[in-house]
Design goal:
The chain is α/β, with parallel strands linked by helices. It is about 45% helix and about 15% strand. α8 links the parallel β5 and β6. It binds thymidine-5'-phosphate and magnesium ion.
Length: about 300
């Protein structure tokens, strides 16, 4: 179908990998036909909506934003970095199965949350830490968030990061529109606004299926929307759509940020569209535009 290729030149960039372009095109056409009223977008946050790197430097995750002297001391920061050095390579290791990774991810998150709780972090300091963190959303994020809001398409941000920080980043980026829903690890503060724990079940990179069934499935805004555009940067993110009751069309986009050569094959196998070292929302925005512009695209 050459017409579609013409309408989506973004899919022909060298950084775009697809196992089955035909399937992608058919899914896009079906989603376009069904219209924005049937669509929901489910996205990971860290390294998916936020950038992996900027000007050659790694950008922070929501956990790493907490590495600010207003919030935690040097000792705690040093311990968190040590844990990152141990566990992040495990998180992205293509030779391990998610079953093998799960206990280690639980260990990582649990240790980090314990360290944070010891720091008596004050809620009032979070906004400033975010402001000074250098966190940055992918280029073109405004178009992405604004278009979804305009069309009243729900956006579920599903993150194993820290929910309070994530919300602050989205707020400071001025895109926390009413259609945005967040599932994440939220801090629990005492009456004085001091961190005393984390709320709810722990979400890590490889248990998003449980979170989807428990926390996303009941959301009334998402229930009657069977067409899903999913964005992630980890194979674990694919489970974010497992709570959708009767999915009709699912299109998955994976950002491959790191260890590109080692992981390309598994990403192409798992995601419909893989974006290699792409720090922008250009492709997701083009997909959205296609799906939601029925008349002129037909
Ligand atoms: P995400 O689900 O929004 O991508 O958030 C999870 C990411 O957070 C995951 O890729 C690993 C990262 N992370 C850190 O950077 N530092 C930490 O201390 C922990 C526990 C996770
Ligand atoms: Mg991520």
């Amino acid at each position: 179908h050459p017409a579609l290729s013409l309408q989506l030149p973004e899919l022909s960039k060298v950084s775009v990998l697809m196992r089955q372009r035909n399937k992608v095109e058919n899914t896009l056409r079906a989603m376009q036909h069904a219209g924005p009223g049937t669509l929901q977008v489910i996205s990971d946050f860290d390294m998916t909506l936020s950038r992996f790197a900027h000007h050659g430097k790694r950008a922070p995750t929501t956990h790493n934003i907490l590495d600010h002297r207003l919030l935690i001391d040097e000792d705690c920061a040093c311990n968190m970095r040590k844990l990152l050095k141990i566990y992040y390579p495990i998180e992205i290791d293509p030779s391990l199965t998610s079953e093998q990774k799960i206990p280690l991810m639980v260990e990582w998150w649990t240790k980090v949350h314990h360290l944070l709780i010891q720091q008596k972090i004050q809620r009032d300091m979070l906004a400033q830490a975010v402001q000074e963190s250098g966190v940055i959303l992918r280029e073109g994020y405004e178009v992405f968030f604004d278009r979804l809001a305009e069309l009243q398409v729900p956006l579920l941000i599903f993150s194993a990061g820290v929910g309070d920080i994530l919300e602050e980043v989205v707020r400071q980026s001025q895109v926390f529109h009413p259609n945005v829903h967040v599932i994440s690890n939220y801090m629990d503060f005492d009456a004085n606004g001091v961190l005393r724990g984390f709320k709810g079940p722990l979400i890590h990179t490889f248990n998003k299926r449980e979170g989807a069934l428990l926390l996303a499935a009941p959301l009334p805004e998402l229930r009657e929307r069977p067409n899903v555009l999913l964005l992630g940067d980890s194979l674990g993110d694919l489970a974010m759509a497992d709570g959708v009751a009767r999915p009709h069309n699912l299109l998955t986009v994976g950002f491959l940020n790191d260890q590109v050569e080692e992981r390309a094959e598994s990403y192409v196998e798992a995601f419909d569209i893989v974006l290699v070292k792409d720090e922008s929302m250009e492709v997701p925005n083009a997909l959205l535009k296609f799906i939601t512009s029925g008349k002129d695209a037909k």
